Structures are given as structure tokens and as C-alpha cells.
Known about the structure:
Radius of gyration: 20 Å
Number of strands: 15
Structural class: alpha/beta
CATH superfamily of the largest domain: Medium-chain alcohol dehydrogenases, catalytic domain
Helix content: 25-40%
CATH topology of the largest domain: Quinone Oxidoreductase, Chain A, domain 1
Order of helices and strands: EEEHEEEEHEHEHEHEHEHHEHEHE
Amino acid sequence: MTQIINKAIVMSTRPVGMPKLADFSLQSHNIDSYNLTDGQVLIKNHYLSLDPYMRGRMSLKKSYAEPLQEGEIITGEAVGEIIASKSDKYPIGTFVCSMSGWQTHFVSHQKSSALYPVFNDQIALSAYLGIIGMPGRTAYLGFKHKAKPQPGETIVVSAASGAVGSVVGQLAKQQGLRVIGVAGSAQKCQYVKQQLGFDECLSYQADDFEQALTTTCANGIDIYWEGVGGRTLNAVAPLLNEGARVPICGFISNYNDTNVAAETPFQVLAKLKPTPEHGFFLVSDWLDEYPTATMALAQGVIDGSLKFKESTAHGIANAPQAFIGMLSGKNFGKQIVKLV
């Protein structure tokens, strides 16, 4: 093995509003496997992860991470197989997760904190990017530390059929909460209730959404899992009980908004009296708990107590279209790209 052709998606133009296909380009370059240095590995990616946070990295707005530069490979997680190695820790044939970004091949080093092995072959490779990857850990650790759940409380979960919300709701049911999901279609709501076991699920696109939420949450809302902003947040806000908690892991409806006057969740919640406990969090706040969270999620997948769904695009050239679709709610479950 010598020359490998790596295909990668780069941000060719910084998006304004909803990203367009013209904002991305597919580029190729050669990787020489003989040029690996001690400790390096060459990975052939099998799946790429597409996540809403990536849209924020494409913006110049102040954020928790540096923005992508034009011409840079789109950031993100991937899972794949090591096909060349100068590492005693990761021999050829090892399956690993990495932060390779949107590309078919990737050179990493055994000391990279973002490189770790797939640990259970009973679990589908793609699940390492979803329910037992970053989205699953976000749900598990954010729910534990920020939602502070108590049995009998009512939680409303936005994006309930998505990679994070679906896990939050299932964990909440297991801990004795009343769980109300919000999703973007009747089909998604049916899945959330019948397959994931939520007590109720409402479509935010329904004309009577606000009234339906008020009726469903007649005794108020104790926890709101915020991942979308917009209409869902505005409907939830007046129903929050005293002492409510609002973990914020994103607000996808604002990501493509060019209206500088558009209110963020922080602005909406700050107006409430009393103001609920709320705040944005990063799953990396609890790095030391990653192993515990990951193993708990993996056990749930193996024993069937945690279910998940995926939307799969095929081929790296289709990653931009799948990403745009995800931002507009066309995905059903965790959005991934299958490369192999």
C-alpha cells in the first residue's frame, strides 16, 4: 500500500443563512502510507457524523470554538478502520473513532486524545457516532448534571426524535419522569411515543401546538431540554414552574437566522419572573465521566433499554446535502454518512 486518494469536503464559502451546496466543495489529495512516522496511523473512515453544532463552526460569531476558515475541512467525528500503522497501540485492522472531519481517510497519532478504539463489536459501528458517541454522552451527562431530575416531574424534550433528545427522553422515563416530546411531524411523534415510550409527543408544526402543549402540561413544566429555540421555546416558556431547569445544548432554529434581532433562548428565559435555572453547556465539561457514561449507554443499547434511529446518506459527495437537510429537519434520527 502506498498512495491513497483521500476525498474531503471543505467549506469553500462561509454560509450566510441556510447553507447552500455552493458553500461546499469536494477535494482530493494523495496520502502516502509509507510516510507515516512513529506512533501514526492511517484510518479509512466508514461513517461520518453530521451534527447541528457544525453550523456554528461555519460562522464568525463568537463561540466556544474557533470558526472554520474558508478552504478548511468540515470538522466532525468519524469511525473507521486502521489500514496502515506505525503504532503498537493501534495495529492494522483496529476500528477507531476520531475527529477526522468530513474526509474518507485520515492520519492521526496514537497520543491524540480524540482517537479511541471501538470497544464492543456487538454494537453497530455507526452507533459510536450517535447514541454511544458525542450526542449520547451529551444527553446522559447533561441530563444528569443540568436537568437534576426528580421522579414525578414533567420534562419537555425538544427535537425528541433526534440523536440527543431521543436519549434524554428515554433516560427520563427510566427515572420516573413524565416525558413530553416535541418533534417536527406526526410520523416522528408516532415513533417517539410508540418506539421510545414517551408519554406524549406534539408536533411544533401543528396549528394548535401552543394550546396542545398547555393542555398536556396542565400542571406546568419542571424541566425543558432546549435544543431548538424558536416556536417551541416560546410555547414552553410561560408554562415553566418555579424552580424549573432549562439545560441548553443548542438552538438550531437560530443557527441560520440572519435577523440580528432574533431572540436567543437566554433572552427569552431572562424575561421570566422568576427566571428559571438555565445555561448552555458542553459535554466536555465532564470529560472525566466519559467512560462511565459511554459504558452505561452501550449497555442500554445491548440490552435493548435504549433505542436509536439513524438517517443515512451514502458517499462523501452527498454529505453537504444531508447536512442542509438535517438543519431543516429532514433527517429522522441521527444523521450519518456511510462511506464504506
